[in-house]
Design brief:
19 helices, globular, 39% helix, Rossmann fold, 10-stranded mixed sheet, 21 strands, alpha/beta, 2 domains, 6-stranded parallel sheet
Length: 499
């Protein structure tokens, strides 16, 4: 079978623009697929906050002319978009290009989904335009299936922002486009692209698909529900999350639809960029190290982090968390037990940005425990890596977590994760059993402060056992977390669809 031609569509892609794990995951998967031999074109907006890298491994060129996206029934509703193509050097037989679609009115803003004034009110229009432009990009790159060309083999859409590409290919495009195989990856089911029925005409979506229930959920238009119903394959970012979203507690109202499509639903764990997140070659940290040298250099990194954050520079364990500050991430559960951790002798570092009341809570608890608790309201990748390198334990108290990447980064740097028993956290962190020399972290028995504190107490016990702690760190750092295995699973999935 020839190498697949994959059209990858996402609202965010690292290193151009990202808010979290979605951008990391799309970039990592796309690169790994190209290394495995696929021809991958990633389409994402060129935002006002987009950064165009200047690395020698990337070359950017503006396309001549524009691509069109018709989002209404009149000629005046056609959006003309410029395309900036970035070609990536790939250590493999495939190819990787990122096409950034440019429309200053829609995308040239100081934010991806919103700015200091709140969420953008026209996000549905913006991302429908992205999806339609992506199909036009694919037709320019590989030829238009409607005109007899091969076109893309796979349309791979990520979250609701790219779901309209699947809807368009299935509902409004030519018969040839309907035959192109489609994959929808759900990174977070909580976000579904819900609109009023009056949006159908503006977004060029057929009313018949709303009337027959394809696009309808609770009387509203649900872009994600429509794509779940129509995609050839639905994936999530961990096996446990694939099971959780089929339940009433984890399905956010779509559990019935997902159970109906269970035969087309699979969970594939995300990987991480193990070249970027590598303590042996990370220029952002105080002292580089490997599993063989972590004991000495970890102490140096812990001391440097303590000085940077204004904490006491002693030998007490360092408990850290880097997170978006939202209810999902459960940072309030951790805040509830911080006084107990400090009383027990820990130092605590809390870094993140998000909801205002949680930002205030981080500042307040640091003020109450000077020298023992430090907080930083920031979204800073280099600081995050210094925290992974300096932390002894990395706490992730999420209420739900589709996959999670920070626990993978933490283990890579020898910080043992303490996690809630949900989603991808369960799939990536195995409980430490020092007696049998097993496990890479601590998994709480429930999503609540008491269970989290019990796991932290277990961490204190392990920290006092130098031999057992060192063995656990070695196991964590040795965990295979690259994109190689997930990419192979996606290639096999594509091949099954094309067969």
């Amino acid at each position: 079978m020839p190498s697949p031609r994959v059209l990858m569509i996402s609202s965010e892609v690292d290193p151009f623009a990202r808010t979290g794990g979605l951008g990391d995951a799309v970039a990592g998967l796309s690169s790994a697929l190209a290394v495995a031999g696929a021809d991958v074109v990633v389409v994402t907006p060129r935002y006002g906050v987009t950064r165009i890298p200047t690395e020698a491994s990337m070359a950017s060129t503006w396309w001549p002319g524009t691509v069109a996206a018709r989002v209404g029934w009149g000629a005046e509703d056609v959006r003309q978009l410029g395309v900036l193509e970035v070609r990536h050097a790939v250590a493999g037989p495939g190819a990787l290009r990122t096409c950034l679609v440019d429309h200053p009115d829609l995308f040239g803003r100081d934010g991806i989904y919103g700015d200091a004034h709140g969420t953008f009110g026209d996000n549905a229009l913006r991302f429908v335009v992205l999806s339609l432009a992506a199909l036009e990009v694919a037709a320019r790159v590989w030829g238009d299936p409607g005109a007899g060309s091969r076109g893309p083999d796979i349309i791979h859409a990520h979250d609701w922002h790219a779901a309209p590409a699947i809807l368009t290919a299935r509902l409004t495009a030519s018969e040839a486009w309907r035959r192109v195989r489609t994959v929808l990856t759900i990174h977070n089911l909580a976000f579904q692209g819900v609109l009023g029925p009056d949006a159908l005409d503006v977004l060029a979506l057929p009313r018949a698909a709303f009337a027959d229930g394809t696009l309808r959920h609770d009387g509203q238009v649900s872009l994600l529900a429509g794509a779940i119903a129509l995609a050839d394959q639905v994936t999530t970012v961990s096996p446990t999350y694939a099971r959780e979203i089929q339940t009433s507690t984890g399905g956010f109202g779509l559990d019935g639809l997902l159970r109906a499509r269970a035969g087309r639903l699979v969970g594939i764990l995300n990987g991480i960029d193990t070249a970027l997140f590598d303590p042996a070659h990370d220029g952002a940290i105080q002292a580089t190290y490997s599993a063989a040298s972590f004991a000495r250099e970890k102490r140096a990194n812990r001391g440097a982090l303590a000085r940077e954050m204004g904490l006491a520079d002693d030998d007490s364990p360092m408990f850290c968390s880097v997170s978006r500050l939202t209810s999902q991430k459960g940072i309030d559960l951790l805040l509830d037990i911080v006084p107990a951790l400090v009383h027990r002798g820990a130092r605590v570092v809390l870094v993140g940005a998000g909801d205002g009341h949680l930002e205030l809570a981080l500042r307040t608890i640091a003020e109450r425990h000077p020298g023992r608790v430090a907080s930083r309201i920031a979204f800073d990748g280099a600081l995050a890596r210094r925290i992974y390198a300096g932390a002894d334990f990395f706490v992730i108290p999420s209420r739900f977590e589709p996959c999670g990447l920070t626990q993978l980064y933490a283990m890579r740097y020898g910080a043992l994760p303490i996690v809630s028993p949900v989603g991808g956290l369960l799939d990536t962190v195995t409980r430490i059993d020092a007696v049998r020399d097993l496990g890479t972290g601590f998994v709480a028995s429930a999503v609540d402060p008491y269970a989290l504190l019990v796991s932290c107490e277990d961490a204190f016990t392990l920290f006092a056992d130098r031999v057992g702690h060192a063995a656990a760190v070695h196991r964590a750092m040795a965990r295979e977390s690259s994109w190689a295995a997930p990419a192979r699973q996606y290639v096999a999935l594509y091949e099954r669809l094309l067969a």
